[in-house]
Each structure stands twice: as structure tokens, then as C-alpha cells.
User: What shape does this take?
Amino acid sequence: MNDKKQSLWLHYGISASIVLVTLLSVAWYATDRFHDFFIHQQQETLESRAITVDQAIKTRKTNNACHVLRTSDPSLRVTIVDTLGVVLCDSEADAIMMENHAERPEISQALKGQRGSSTRMSETLQTSMLYLAIPYFKDEKIVGAIRTAIPLLSIENLLDELYRQFVILLMVLFAIISMVIINIYRKINQPLDEIVEEARRYAKGDFSNALPDYDIREIAELGGALNQMAEQLDRLENLRQDFVANVSHELKTPIATIKSYVETLLDGAQHDPADLERFLNIVLKQNDRLAAIVDDLLTLSRLESAPVTQILALAETDACQLLHASAENCQSRAEAKNITINISCNENIFIQVDHSLMTQALVNLIDNAIKYSNENKTISLSVEEIDKQVLLSISDQGPGIPEQHIPRLFERFYRVDKSRSRRIGGTGLGLAIVKHIVHIHGGQVEVSNNVTVGCRFVIKLPQSD
Ligand code: ADP
Assistant: This one.
């Protein structure tokens, strides 16, 4: 997988190359423009010099027109030809010795009445020259051409120097860009490598390390998110370990009890009919306890494993009817302790609930109220509508719950009085199940002690529209 992915280096390399190519193009273009501009300037100068020569001839100031500009412009070469291209004079060479110039591009152009210009090696002077020729008129007829020229060497030297400096500048720029890129790469990749390492450690279940706070905001956010995730995972892992330990502990006691009674029976107690029945009843009770724990664990795991939408079969339900149905379910256990269940509610308060799950939550709470109340007490159920919420409450006249236990009461296997809970067949999971069911309905469950006696559990659910 790794070799298919491109390293950040590649991206940096591409960016650097793009920058370099862009800079080179800019340099090349700028030098080219500068060259054109320079040649154009020189052409203008040459043309104005040619006009000066033209005027000098016209005003007959001189007999040696080619030498007119000798003193003011020593590097300037002036050549005058007739219509046939025969050189009449030249400031640098002997005209008689010179070949016919009619074919020189600038001169042939000028003899046609236009301004002509060209750059080439001068055969006469053996150096690269810029030429410019204009037609020379007499009585409105072309009688020849005046050509001015300067050596190009100086321009080319200048451009070469300019280009050289450009290249140096480019190299410096490229070095700076490379350094910046390497720096950015380090700044990004080093933390990224650390983060990858850290994630690998998490995968192995090692959450001991925390990532530092990085300078770059995006990476710091990634590091922060990863640290948060590690904390969560660590917490979950601890919860899971606690849970497994708790489950094992809860299961161990009944299993050990069953084993010891069965052994006692096998050791001879089975022959005493009174012992036989007593011990078998104990075994049966422990077995029921195991079954209850396993049932509750299965319920919890079902509530947790599937996505909420798959578990919940929501239906518009009359809250009052729900209370009646739940109370009905607990009726026999209440009667066994001569406990009265009062229900006070107005019909027509509707909630969106999964009927069977919400009944299970209510039954758990009513059963607790029955379990932890003494005989002949009363349990009150009610439905109220407050602030767009529907409150289902179960109030009892039992021992209530010491304040310090309230914050952890809904945790799995948390019990206020362990031995009492076990004695009356509690699994320690009832309230955890209630909390879960209420949560997946988008509600909360709370508990408070009554002012006089007992406690009150309240399930708060959003009102259905
Ligand atoms: P259990 O199976 O032990 O009843 P629960 O999760 O249903 O487990 O309840 C957790 C603990 O909360 C109980 O062990 C008990 O100490 C306390 N409790 C629950 N309901 C009541 C109540 N109505 N009155 C007093 N204590 C209660």
C-alpha cells in the first residue's frame, strides 16, 4: 500500500519545480523583452542619427557626409550608398574597396522607400552590428540610402550580464525556496510521524503517552483529537475491564454456592430428606440468580450492540396506560408484601416510546420500589407534563437512598447495600438497564429522596408532537 501512496516529498518536489520553471520563464521573458526594448531604443537612436546625416547633406554643410558624426558619436558607423547599392562613403572603411551593398537587407529595404533594419556580422568590420537604413531623397526621388550602425557587442555584453545576474538571483531564490520547503516538511512531517507512531501504540492498547501541543494549528488539532480519543479509549478499556471483573465476581458466588451444596448432598446429606429439600431449594435459588444476571446482561448487550433505530419500535403511546400496564405486571409481587400501588394520571398525555422497552424500565423501577419497601407500604405512580416534557414518576416509602450513593447509582452492579440486594435477588443491573432504555428514547432518569420517607425515581421524556 505504501509504495502506491506518494510521499509529501514528491508534492514538495513538484511545487519546487513549478516555482523554478515559473521563475525561469519569467527571467527568460523579462530578458527577451529587455532585449527587444533595447534594440528598439537603439534603432530610434540610429534613425535620428541617419536623419542628422541626411540634413547635413541637404544643407551641404559638409562634403564628407559619412564623417559628420565622427566627433559626437565615435562608435557610430555611417554608410551612404546610391540607388544601385554602390557605396559612396563609409565612416569606417574605404568606400572604393567595399563591395556592392544593394543586397544588404536594411539597404534593399531603404531603397524601396522604407526604413530598414537588421542585425548581423559585418563582413567589413568583422563584428556583430545593428544596422538601420533610411532612403535618401533628392527632389522627391530616392537617390540612395543612408545607413547608420553600431556594434552590438556592448548590447550583447549587457544582456549577458543581465542574464547571468538573473540566473544567480534564481539560484538564490531556489535555495531559499528549498530551505523553506525543507523546513515546512520537517515541521509537518515530524509531528505526523509522531502521530502515526502514537496511533500505532493506541492500536496495541498502550495509552500511556500523550502527544505534545504542536505549533501548527491543524496538526495541534489533530494531536488534540487523538489525545482525546486515547483518553476515551483508555476510559472505555478500564470500564470494560471493570465490567468483566464485576461480571465474573457476580457469577462466581452463585456457582461456588451451587457447587458446595451439591458436594454436601453427594457427601451424604442427600439421605436426610429435610437437608435434601433445603439444599435443593438453595441450589434452585442460586440458579435463578444466575439466570437473572445472564438475562440482564443479555438485555444490556442487546441495548448496546444494535443501532438505536434497529432496537426501537417507537409508537404513540398513552403514558397513563403505560403506567397501568407496568403496575399490572408487578401486581403479584406487590400483593405478596401487601403493598398498594396508586396511580394518578390524566389520560391523553402521549409519548413516543417502544412499548415493551419502556414497560421493562418502569417494571424495573416499580419492582425496586417493592423490593426495598417494607410490607404494607404504598407506591405512587404519576404522569405529569412540565415544560414540553412528560415526567413518569415512581415514589415509594422505602429506606430512600443515602445522598453519597446517588451519583453512581445507575452504574452497572452498583448497590447501596450489597448483601440486602443479593438477598432479595437483585442483580445490580436493573437501574443500568433503566438508564439505557431512557437514554435511547432521548430522555433522562433521575432520583431524589422524598422529604418525608422513601425516594422518587423520575423518567423525563420529550413530549410527542
Ligand atoms: P438491584 O438488582 O440490586 O436492585 P438496581 O440496579 O436495580 O440493582 O439498583 C441498584 C441499587 O440501588 C440497589 O442495590 C439499591 O441499593 C438501590 N435502590 C434501587 N431502587 C431503590 C429504591 N426504590 N429504594 C432504595 N434503594 C434503591
Summary: The mean pLDDT is 89.
